[in-house]
Structure formats: C-alpha cells, structure tokens
Design goal:
- The protein has 3 domains: 218 residues, Arp2/3 complex 21 kDa subunit ARPC3 (Orthogonal Bundle), CATH 1.10.1760; 147 residues, Beta-Lactamase (2-Layer Sandwich); 160 residues, Alpha-Beta Plaits.
- It is of the alpha+beta class.
C-alpha cells in the first residue's frame, strides 16, 4: 500500500528535527582531528560507488559498504563517518530511482544512516575506543562491536518503519538479516586491512578498493544473470503446470497466481479479444476478484489499448509516465506497469496487464519472461478448449445436443451420493416418452421424427431451465434429474411439462412426399416420477422406478398422463 501523507509529513519533520541539529551536536561531541583530504576523498568515492552497485543474493539486496565505513570510523571518528554516509544517500536515491513525489524515502534513508552512525559510533567511543588507535586488539574488538551495533540498529529502524507504514517485513531477524551479517563477516577483514594499510601506503584505498569494486561488479553481473536464468526456469515450470490443467478457469487462476508470486504484482488483468473487441476475462486487485465494466472504446484509451494497437509489449516505471498516454481501469496507487500481448500462432488473442504500487518494480528483461509465459498460457487455453470440446461431444447427444445416457448415469450417481451424505434432502427423477412416436416416423419419415426430437429438446430446455439436469435417455425417451425436489413438486413440474408439450405444435418437413412441405404436428408424452429416499436409495433403482411408473402408471392407463412410482 502507498505511504499516507501523514506518515510522509512525519518523516520530513523527523529529518529536520534530528539530522541537521544532530550533525551539529555530533561535531561538538567529537570534532575531527587532522584529515588527509586525498585519502578521505578516496574513501568517500569508494563508499559512493559501492553503494551505487549493490547485488542480490537469494532475493536480498546486498550493499557491501560496511568495510569502508568501518575504516573511516576507525581513522576519523563518528562525525566524519556520519557525513560520508549522508553523501552515500545520493547514489542510493539514484539506485532506488527516488523522484520528487517520494523524496521522503531519501529523507528516511538519510535519517536511518545518521542514527546508525550515531548509535554505533558513539557507543563504541563511550566503550573506550580511541580514534586513530593502532592497537590491533582494540581495532579488532571495537571494530567488530561497531559493525554489530551498526547492523542491528539499521534493522531495528527499518523494521519500525515497515511496521509503521504497514508494509510486509520478515522481522528483525529474517533472511535479510542473515545475509547482512554474512556480509559483515566477509568484509570485516577488508575494513581492518584498509585502515592499517593506509598508515603505511597512502594509496591503500586504491589497492584494496579497485579490486573490490571489480569483484563486486562481476558478482552483480553474475547475480543478474542468475536472476534471469531463475526466472526462465520458473517460467518453464509454470508452463508445465499450466499444461496439466484441463479447464480454462483453472488455467487462468493458476496463471495469475504464479505471475503474482514470481513478480511484485498488486494488480493483474487478462483481457480477451472477441470479434475484434477488448473484453475483460479476469481482473484481480490485491488478490481479490473484481468486476470491471468498460466498453471497447474506453479500453482502447487504456494501456491495454496501446498494446492492442501496437501489438507490442510495454513497460512503465512510474505512474507519471503511463498517465501521459493512457487512462482507464488501473487504480490510483498503481505505479509500475507491464502489459504483454497474449499470442498464439502469431495472432494476438488477448492482453495481460500487471501493475505494482512500487516505482521501478519491474526489469526490462521481464517483458520477455512474461511473453514466454503468455505463450504457454495461450497454448494451454487452446488445449483446454479442445479437451472441453471433446468431453462435451462425448457427453452430448449428437441429434438433440442434450446430455447423453453416460453423462446422465454419472451425474445421477453423484447426486445420489450427495443425498446419502446429507448434502441433498431429496432427489427426484422424471422419465418421459413420446406417445405413438413410431406412428410419426411411419407417417412423416424418420427425418421428421428427428425434427420433433430436436424441437422437444429445445422446449424442455426452456421449461426446465435451472431446475435440474436434462438428458436424452435413448430413442424418444428423456430424463430430468431434480435435486432437492420432493415427490409433490416433481409431479407438479411433470404435469406442467405434459400440458406444455400437448399444446405446442412442432414444425416438421415431410420427406415422404414428392415435394417436401412444412407441417405442424401435435404430440403428447407420458411421464413417470420417482423420488429418493422414499422410493429407493440407489441411482439405477431411481431410474427403474420412474420407468416402471411411466409404463405401468401412464402408458397402460391411456398415455398423455403423469404417474408416480408406488411401491
């Protein structure tokens, strides 16, 4: 979440109260002695360059500047070290790309560096360290204490800030702490060596600093390449996971979840291109699904519209950049934005838009990573469509497009289990059969009979709607599964269906005449009703009972009627 204006004003106030006046008091506490300015300038340049070129280890940003600060403190004391650290705020602000709108972040870093310098430096001096001492025992002991207090103070202040601003943090002793203290162990000997060597070699900062900077730069390059390789491997794994999903909903949810874990994403959107127009497929803001209703014309003015027109990926590092060229659906606190086409076979089928509340949250190489992920996503969706179509064909009657017997049997078993487990109160089933259907085929032809079956299927779909599951049982027989329908409710529905069918003319094209003609035909149906658990407690028994009611209670009694199963 964004930092509130109240907190920002508080940071400005704290800086003005503590830092300028604190520097004055620090000078009074320990004014620097004789200063070798070329050496100090060299130290300062080395400190600034080291601050400007951090690298990442296990997701933690490492600034290996501690050893230089240690040498400065041992040689010149707390005041000079504090001033050098204030100067180091400048490259840090450049590294973090802090602008005027969030300048309070630079002030916070300045305050934190100052307090760290004061607390660690003053503490060690009060413990008895003499600035400029060449006693090896004192240098190692007090130098190590200085480093420990320095790092601990840094983490306490940072933890307090993150808690105050309600940002995520690992606590004072998280993984970041581990790597920072590991950095101390590695660099501490360099700091001691730099300080002692400088007593004898005026260019010691060059002898140690230049190789150290080169090594740091190489580590940074290696770290960046490792990050790219790690993201590529992760993208490949995500692609495999997407391929294992069988439904479009599963694929979309998994895709957005994985992208949000891989990158610092606060807002994510997938837009589909249907008939040449942009429509929202899914939108998530702060891990919550949201509904966004915007027209194609409005979406063309958004970042998605830019990608739609150019068919190219885009990256914006801060809000002021994308606000100049787009409007639309992104929240007010969105800063960094990436938008990537979702393409398959060189055809753009959708658009991905992700945003972060942080500035400069994304790297340029991540555009390629996301493009790769979007390719996996598009292929997986297409595969899911094929699978769904194949499943649908295997579950549907080719003529009526209703569910077939196999699907009916599966669903009836599921519903019966739900009944036995207490998830359903009752379960009813209607079995209906067209009366004298053979006579219709003999009179008008089989194609006309098919026309009636198709027309009856559409009528039943309209009438049943969401009441239950409608299926063609076979031949001229149809079945309706009615979860949570009592026997009385089922009989009422069956009678309504029978009446509706009887009063509805069905249009057929006669094929037995020389010139086919359109003819209106009236049909009737007989319907049997059975209900569980009162009639039975097995799925197939429910079908048999309804079938028995159909033929004994309805067909034998004259047809065109509804009958219930009676034990």
């Amino acid at each position: 979440m964004g930092i509130s204006k109240r907190i920002q004003r508080l940071i400005w106030a704290i800086w003005f109260i503590f830092v300028p006046f604190g520097i004055y008091l620090l000078y009074q506490f320990q004014a620097p002695g004789e200063i070798n300015w070329p050496i100090l300038v060299g130290y300062t340049v080395l400190s600034i360059l080291t601050t400007y070129f951090p690298f990442k280890v296990a997701g933690t940003t490492i600034f290996l500047v501690q050893w230089i600060n240690l040498a400065i403190f041992l040689k010149y004391g707390v005041f000079v070290e504090a001033i050098v650290m204030q100067l180091a705020v400048i490259p840090l602000a450049l590294q973090l790309k802090i602008g005027f709108s969030d300048f309070f972040r630079a002030l916070f870093n300045s305050f934190m560096f100052f307090m760290v310098s004061v607390i660690s430096g003053v503490s060690v001096i009060l413990m008895g360290y003499q600035v400029g001492s060449l006693e090896l025992k004192d240098i190692i002991l007090f130098g190590f204490i200085y480093q420990i207090i320095n790092m601990f103070t840094n983490h306490v202040i940072l933890y307090t800030y993150l808690k105050l601003t309600k940002q995520e943090n690992e606590g004072i002793f998280g993984s970041d702490t581990f790597w920072d203290y590991a950095g101390i162990i590695v660099t501490f000997p360099f700091g001691i060596t730099l300080y002692l060597l400088n007593e004898y070699v005026s260019t010691a900062f060059l002898l140690l600093g230049v190789p150290f900077l080169i090594i740091t730069f190489l580590i940074r390059l290696y770290s960046n390449s490792e990050r790219v390789n790690e993201d590529l491997n992760q993208a490949t794994e995500i692609g495999h996971e997407l391929a294992d999903r069988l439904t479009g909903v599963e694929i979309i949810d998994l895709f957005l979840t994985k992208v949000s874990k891989m990158l610092p994403v606060d807002y994510s959107y997938i837009l589909d291109i249907r008939n040449g127009k942009l429509v929202f497929l899914k939108a998530m803001e702060k891990d919550v699904d949201v509904e966004i209703d915007l027209s194609h014309e409005d979406l063309l003015k958004s970042i998605a519209g830019i990608v739609y027109n150019k068919e190219k990926s885009i990256l914006f590092n801060k809000q002021s950049d994308w606000r100049k060229v787009s409007s639309g659906f992104l929240p007010e606190d969105a800063e960094s934005v990436i938008s990537v086409p979702i393409s398959r076979n060189q055809t753009m089928e959708g658009i991905l838009v992700i945003a972060s509340r942080k500035k400069y949250a994304f790297e340029s190489y991540q555009l390629q990573i996301l493009s790769l992920l979007c390719s996996y996503f598009a292929v997986s969706l297409e595969k899911a469509r094929f699978v769904q179509e194949a499943v649908s064909k295997s579950e549907r009657c080719g003529l009526t497009k209703l569910y077939n017997y196999r699907y009916l049997e599966q669903q009836l078993e599921i519903n019966m289990n739900d009944l036995l487990n207490g998830e359903l109160r009752q379960l009813s089933l209607l079995m209906m059969d067209i009366d004298h259907f053979k006579a219709i085929n003999d009179t008008y032809g089989h194609q006309s009979g098919n026309d009636i079956l198709f027309g009856l299927a559409r009528l039943l779909e309209r009438e049943v709607e969401d009441c239950g599951i409608l299926a063609r049982y076979g031949g001229e027989e149809f079945v309706v599964i009615l979860p949570n329908y009592s026997k009385e409710q089922s009989l009422i529905l069956a009678e309504e269906l029978r009446t509706k069918i009887e009063s509805t003319p069905f249009e057929i094209r006669t094929e037995l005449e020389d010139i086919p003609q359109l003819t209106l035909v009236h049909i009737t149906t007989s319907i049997g009703v059975s209900t569980a658990p009162e009639d039975c407690d097995e799925a197939m028994a429910l079908i048999r009972n309804a079938d028995r009611a159909l033929y004994i209670g309805a067909k034998r009694e004259g047809r065109n009627r509804v009958a219930e199963y009676v034990k």
